[in-house]
Automatic annotation (TrEMBL):
Belongs to the inositol monophosphatase superfamily. It catalyses: a myo-inositol phosphate + H2O = myo-inositol + phosphate. Residues 252-261 have a biased composition (Basic and acidic residues). This is Inositol-1-monophosphatase. Mg(2+) binds at residues 43, 63, 65-66, 192. The lineage of its organism: Eukaryota, Metazoa, Chordata, Craniata, Vertebrata.
Amino acid sequence: IIRHQLCANSQFARVARKWRKKAFDRKNNVAKEKLPSSLFIGEESTAAGSTCLLTDDPTWIIDPIDGTCNFVHRFPTVAVSIGFAVNQELEFGVIYHCTEEKMYTGRRGHGAFCNQERLQVTKQTDIRNALIVTEIGPKRDPATLKLFLKYLLIGSLITHRVRVIGSATLALCHIAAGTADAFYQYGLHCWDLAAATVIIREAGGVVIDTTGTSFLNHHRAVAVQGKAVKPGKCMPGKNPSRSRSHAAQPPEKADTVEGSE
């Protein structure tokens, strides 16, 4: 059984890398035609040896297939995510839900839309009535699983419900669209967040890094729909003034993604 599982995982990884690289290269080529001097950040570029560091140069931040496991298994929650930054400021983001043909867009100062319909986050203020979305991520080591299950249990006790859909990008789109109230995940990368961050902000939401630093140059982040919904607000025995960082504190080391979700 173990040998069969290892072979299956190895085959999945090869298929995932193949399709992600093809998609990433194609988008890079198109972007270079439009803006030859621009830089690129993505899982595929970092795997090839490029540094994952945002500079002041015009930079495309791309996740060619978010929900890679879903994609390989033909599970229909799959998206393409493209963000663009200049002077380390996110200018616009585009996320395409491939199977539902929904195009989420956001441009700094110009609002957020889904197929030209304006997006707005919810006004939910009570975490007990909030629908929370999260993702476990690609790692399956005991420490990661223990952390995930711990906060899944806490979330299940203090919120209305917690959902996992297999795509961090589309989960974040649910925050912008107001179909979910908050999102959290450990070990996210900038290509998971860049496009969605613009869309959420333009829809009236906020994106928080629990370390207080620029999440685009780190791998730790929490997205929340509005300032009124505070992660950990109702957690027994917690100081409300410290609940946000304490309740969502990620591991010290960033996750290494292979094939993404």
